[in-house]
């Protein structure tokens, strides 16, 4: 497809799927316009799932989190207003690329963020590298984003499949869950999560007895669960997310799988998933996240403000969206430019410290080094009220939550004597 045709197609798709422009100064929806001059607005694009199975964990809440970050920064930087665009990629990589290409080429978008669905995230990573812009993967999880598909323009901000495997997977094996069967989303994210978790299981002396793979937005998981049940595995690893994960857990409860002795490992679960499942169904699940709203005074203060705008407590993705955009705007201000290479260098050179992240940093492969937290879902009797869902079991240190550089297949990583360091 030619560049001109791609841009024209992108513009049509953006209109069709509801691309929105929002200015923190005016807080109004604006019509699409011709490209601004260099003194015009700096735009941030939130490319997300507004209508599908991943909408609760990111979606409109992610858009609000980015707006909050822009507002709190003062709605301008370098004397230019900052605006937020948003669009629904419909969990399709081609639609996501077309929207992002239109944003980069015609709408003066400098940053794209969020990107639930790893196939979309990886496609936008490559486009962003070619356009020399910046992308934050806050919702997509595939560790390939900072591995074989890494880019000098990409930052994996919140979590990745390696961190989830290092947290939940490693813990389950230590607790005696040494035989696994996976129910896996047949997409980049699910395959990466199964791969990374299986490596921890076998590395600890456990066995992987098999896997069943399903398409996105499945409704019936009975055949997959029966295969997992018949395998005799001690642990059924759920390498899916959002609505698919919720349906899997609900149907597993209907089949009485856990009552018969097998354990479910939700390898990627969000606060929104627990809210949808309810504590009666979700109680006892062990999961790994990088943020929980009730960890301390800082997390509670942000989450209260977010709740006032959305009626929901934030997920780790939505909290990460706020932190990533704040870090970006600080870097633009410090660097005195929006040029991607300079801003990226400034972000890497600047420690990350906010309500969610303490002493974090962006590694050369784009991976944010941060602590992760192991949680257990409370019983209904232990919960003090709505949204009181987790008790913290432990901390996975940043060095253990990130794949060692010595094991990285990112072309940007220097293969040096100290490559084993995080």
Automatic annotation (TrEMBL):
<protein>
    <submittedName>
        <fullName>ABC transporter substrate-binding protein</fullName>
    </submittedName>
</protein>
<keyword id="KW-0813">Transport</keyword>
<feature type="signal peptide">
    <location>
        <begin position="1"/>
        <end position="26"/>
    </location>
</feature>
<dbReference type="InterPro" id="IPR051010">
    <property type="entry name" value="BCAA_transport"/>
</dbReference>
<keyword id="KW-0732">Signal</keyword>
<keyword id="KW-0029">Amino-acid transport</keyword>
<feature type="domain" description="Leucine-binding protein">
    <location>
        <begin position="41"/>
        <end position="378"/>
    </location>
</feature>
<dbReference type="Pfam" id="PF13458">
    <property type="entry name" value="Peripla_BP_6"/>
</dbReference>
<dbReference type="InterPro" id="IPR028082">
    <property type="entry name" value="Peripla_BP_I"/>
</dbReference>
<dbReference type="InterPro" id="IPR028081">
    <property type="entry name" value="Leu-bd"/>
</dbReference>
<comment type="similarity">
    <text>Belongs to the leucine-binding protein family.</text>
</comment>
């Amino acid at each position: 497809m030619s560049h001109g045709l791609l841009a024209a197609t992108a513009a049509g798709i953006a209109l069709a799927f509801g691309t929105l422009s929002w200015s923190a100064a005016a807080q109004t929806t604006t019509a699409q316009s011709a490209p601004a001059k260099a003194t015009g607005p700096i735009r941030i694009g939130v490319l997300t799932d507004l209508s599908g199975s991943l909408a609760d964990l990111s979606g409109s809440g992610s858009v609000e989190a980015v707006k909050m970050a822009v507002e709190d920064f003062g709605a301008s930087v370098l004397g230019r207003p900052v605006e937020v665009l948003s669009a629904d990629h419909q969990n399709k990589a081609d639609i996501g690329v077309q929207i992002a290409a239109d944003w980069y080429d015609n709408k003066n978008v400098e940053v794209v963020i969020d990107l639930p669905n790893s196939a979309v995230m990886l496609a936008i990573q490559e486009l962003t590298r070619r356009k020399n812009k910046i992308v934050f993967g806050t919702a997509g999880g595939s560790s390939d984003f900072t591995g074989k598909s890494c880019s000098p323009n990409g930052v994996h901000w919140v979590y990745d499949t390696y961190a989830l495997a290092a947290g939940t997977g490693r813990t389950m094996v230590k607790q005696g869950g040494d035989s696994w069967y996976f129910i896996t989303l047949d997409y980049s994210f699910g395959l990466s999560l199964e791969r990374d978790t299986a490596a921890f299981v076998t590395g600890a002396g456990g066995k992987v007895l098999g896997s069943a793979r399903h398409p996105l937005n499945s409704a019936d998981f009975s055949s997959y669960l029966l295969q997992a049940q018949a395998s005799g595995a001690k642990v059924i690893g759920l390498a899916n997310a959002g609505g698919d994960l919720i349906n899997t857990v609900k149907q597993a409860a209907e089949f009485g799988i856990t009552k018969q002795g097998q354990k479910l490992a939700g390898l990627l679960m969000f606060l929104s998933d627990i809210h949808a499942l309810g504590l009666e169904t979700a109680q006892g699940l062990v999961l790994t996240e990088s943020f929980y709203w009730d960890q301390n005074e800082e997390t509670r203060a942000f989450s209260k403000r977010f709740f006032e705008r959305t009626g929901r407590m934030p997920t780790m993705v939505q909290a990460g969206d706020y932190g990533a955009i704040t870090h970006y705007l600080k870097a633009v201000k410090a660097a005195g430019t929006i040029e991607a290479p300079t801003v990226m260098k400034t972000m890497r050179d600047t420690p990350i410290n906010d309500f969610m992240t303490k002493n974090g940093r962006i590694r050369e492969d784009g991976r944010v080094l941060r602590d992760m937290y192991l949680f257990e879902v409370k019983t209904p009797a232990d919960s003090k009220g709505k949204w009181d869902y987790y008790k913290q079991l432990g901390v996975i240190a940043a060095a253990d939550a990130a794949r060692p550089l010595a094991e990285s297949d990112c072309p940007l990583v220097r293969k040096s004597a100290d490559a084993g360091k995080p």
